[in-house]
Amino acid sequence: MKNVAVLLLLFFAGTSVAAQVNVPTADPSGISVLKFSWSKERIGWEQDPFGGPIESFDEMRVRARNEKRVADAKKGGSGAEVSRAERDAKTDEALVATIHKNGTTRYVFVYKLLLQNSDPRSIKSIDWDYVFYDRSTGEEVGRRQFTSDAKIAPGKTKELKFFIPTPPAKTISITSLNKREREGLSEAIVIARVEYVDGSLWKLQ
Questions:
Q1: What are 117-169's pLDDT values in tens digits?
Q2: Phi and psi, residue 147, nearest 5°
Q3: Between residues 168 and 99, which one has the greater pLDDT?
Q4: Given the DSSP bridges, would you call strands 185-196 and 140-152 parallel, antiparallel or unpaired?
Q5: Are strands 12-21 and 31-43 parallel, antiparallel or unpaired?
Q6: Are 31 and 191 in contact, with CB atoms under 8 Å apart?
Q7: Whole-angstrom distance, CA of residue 114 vs CA of residue 35
Q8: I need a labelling partner for 105 at 20 to 30 A (CA). Which of 16, 48, 62, 94 fits?
Q9: Could you tell me if 38 and 110 are in contact, meaning their C-beta atoms sit under 8 angstroms apart?
């Protein structure tokens, strides 16, 4: 998924809950994970006085970007890339539909990753998963998968950020605020795929 922050800045109303994790770790991918966190943001939308939502310029731009990404994937990408592009586009559409359908306050989830390129090659794009576990049992209870198209030179750091309507786990509400929701969760970042500017590729086995 590409960054959809442009769309959601229109609806941003304030930070409600946030978690910050400071865990510098190295990965066989050549990516050093410096920090990761997720937060819950309150959003809303302004109703069309005639009763119907109006697609904003930024919403149109997000839609056009998704359509182009799917088309590009179909032209030269693999089946997995096409599926990912289509899935990300549907996520964006679901977010807009959720916002337009509900006039009451809702929440969107912000997932952040601060990383460093520890490889001598420049990075072109990264697939990464934000994984959630039940703290008491160790069972995986949620996994959010992202694709970040961001050029990162060797030794440089980059913050990746996504705004999506999907909570970390089913136990997290999307319609109300509970500051104790995260207490039973533990978290981890998994680097799944790294594409370099020179055309080389690293994938998690």
A1: 999 999 999 999 999 999 999 999 999 999 999 899 999 999 999 988 889 99
A2: -120, 125
A3: 168
A4: unpaired
A5: antiparallel
A6: yes
A7: 5
A8: 62
A9: yes
Report the pLDDT value the prediction gives residue 129, as an integer from 0 to 100. 96
Q: Which residues of 162-195 are buried (b: 16+ CB within 10 A; e: fewer)?
A: bbbbbbbbeebeeeeeeeebbeebebbbebebbb
Q: Could you tell me which residue, 74 or 1, shows the higher pLDDT?
A: 74
Q: Where are the alpha helices (DSSP H) in 126-173?
A: none
Enclosing domain of residue 39: 5-46+55-203
Beta bridge partners of 114: 35, 159
The Cα–Cα gap between 81 and 77 comes to 6
Lowest-pLDDT range of 25-29, 67-71, 112-116: 25-29
* Contact criterion met (CB below 8 Å) for 45 and 102: no
Residues 6+ apart with CB under 8 A from 113: 33, 35, 36, 128, 130, 159, 160, 161, 189
- The rounded distance, in Å, linking the Cα atoms of 1 and 195 is 15
Phi, psi of 155 (to 5 degrees): 80, -10
Cα first-last separation, the chain = 21
Q: How many distinct structural domains can be found in the chain?
A: 1
Over residues 14-20, the mean pLDDT reads 46
The structure tokens listed for 147 are 């694709």
